[in-house]
């Protein structure tokens, strides 16, 4: 390590030099080692640092958090009781916290009796945005939505008719008597009154299944919103790739979703796949008409046929 530079105290406390002769005298008096030190402001010098600075490097105080050392004296503020106070459950151990708050109510009726163990949160519930018919007609009258084109999720969000979509959009029938413009609208779900109001005005409504990633891609223009189903109900999601979209629109996979969009009463996009005489349910079959007897083999009675079918 190089030796430290010692400067006379008189030079450090001396005011700004007044003449060039004084500065010349100062430069002569300093040694070669002290030439590296800073001189009064009238003499220009470059900033230099000694090797001793390597032993004084440290991070900023806010660069990292220091561990709190508890029980190490009153000077730290966390000594003696370590910040826990005197006696009680909060000092002796942690206070357990459950879904409905503390596990006890001080002798009163527990919260679990009022609220129950289950039922507060449904992880399978859908967060669906709603739009009413009166607001839809108001947006059309103000020119925010073009009724000559199919109205999809993208048009509803961009026109600020709804503010954000998570799992889909549902059309409700508030102010259904105000609907007078025929439109083609495709949403996730729709009430029966809203469907009747749209069709009464000469419009057409269709319900389509959406997922969160699909809605995100629809807003970015990477996925078709499904408006091609108005002209071709049998169009497949892969047909949208030929129209320039990067991703196809997924279909429902759960039984409840499939049955909902197979129902013609909901104007589901899968209703054309249901055969004539069948219902939208995948589990329950359409009941057969009563009074229909089974055909018997010629020359044998019912008891004889039952006897032949027995295993023992």
Largest sheet: 3 strands, parallel
The helix content is 10-25%
Number of helices: 10
| Secondary structure category | mainly alpha
Strand content: 5-15%
Distance between the termini: 107 Å
| Overall residue-averaged pLDDT value | 81
SSE series = HHHHEHHEEEHEHHH
Categorize the overall geometry: extended
Return Rg in Å.
Answer: 41 Å
Mind telling me the CATH class of the domain at 129-273? Answer: Alpha Beta
CATH topology of the domain at 129-273: Ribosomal Protein L15, Chain: K, domain 2
Q: What's the number of extended β-strand segments?
A: 5
Q: What is the CATH-assigned architecture of the domain at 129-273?
A: Ribosomal Protein L15, Chain: K, domain 2
Low-confidence segments: 16-39
Strand order of the largest sheet: 1-2-4
Domain Large ribosomal subunit protein uL15/eL18: 130-205
Organism: Aulographum hederae CBS 113979
Pfam families: Ribosomal_L27A (PF00828)
Keywords: Ribonucleoprotein, Ribosomal protein
Provide structural commentary:
With 312 residues, the protein is mainly alpha-helical. Among the domains are: 1-41, no CATH class; 129-273, Ribosomal Protein L15, Chain: K, domain 2, CATH 3.100.10. The chain is built from 10 helices and 5 strands; from the N terminus they run ααααβααβββαβααα. It has helices spanning 9-12, 20-29, 89-92, 111-115, 133-141, 153-158, 192-200, 212-220, 255-262, 302-309; strands at 129-132, 169-172, 184-187, 189-190, 204-207. 15% of the residues are buried. Residues 130-205 form the Large ribosomal subunit protein uL15/eL18 domain. One of its GO terms (biological process) is translation. Keywords: Ribonucleoprotein, Ribosomal protein.
């Amino acid at each position: 390590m190089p030796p430290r530079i010692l400067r006379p105290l008189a030079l450090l406390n001396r005011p700004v030099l007044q003449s060039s002769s004084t500065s010349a005298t100062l430069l002569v008096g300093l040694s070669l080692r002290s030439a590296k030190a800073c001189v009064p402001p009238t003499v220009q010098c470059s900033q230099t640092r000694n090797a001793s600075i390597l032993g004084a490097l440290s991070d900023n105080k806010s660069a990292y958090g220091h561990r709190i050392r508890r029980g190490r004296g009153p000077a730290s503020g966390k000594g003696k009781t370590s910040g826990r106070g005197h006696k009680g459950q909060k000092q002796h151990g942690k206070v357990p916290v459950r879904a409905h708050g503390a596990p006890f109510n001080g002798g009163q009726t527990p919260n679990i009796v009022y609220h129950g163990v289950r039922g507060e949160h449904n992880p399978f519930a859908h967060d669906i945005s709603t739009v009413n018919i009166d607001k839809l007609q108001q947006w059309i009258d103000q020119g925010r939505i073009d009724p000559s084109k199919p109205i999809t999720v993208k048009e509803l969000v961009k026109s600020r008719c709804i503010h954000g979509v998570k799992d889909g959009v549902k059309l409700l029938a508030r102010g259904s008597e105000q609907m007078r413009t025929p439109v083609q609208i495709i949403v996730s779900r729709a009430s029966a009154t809203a469907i009747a109001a749209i069709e009464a005005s000469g419009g057409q409504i269709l319900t389509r299944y959406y997922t969160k990633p699909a809605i995100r891609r629809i807003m970015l223009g990477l996925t078709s919103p499904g408006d091609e189903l108005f002209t071709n109900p049998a169009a497949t999601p892969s047909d949208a790739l030929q129209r320039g979209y990067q991703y196809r629109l997924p279909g429902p996979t759960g039984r409840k979703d499939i049955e909902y969009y197979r129902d013609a009463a909901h104007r589901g996009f899968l209703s054309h796949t249901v055969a004539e005489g069948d219902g939208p349910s995948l589990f329950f079959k359409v009941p057969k008409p009563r009074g229909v007897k089974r055909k018997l083999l010629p020359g044998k009675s019912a008891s004889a046929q039952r006897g032949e079918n027995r295993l023992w």
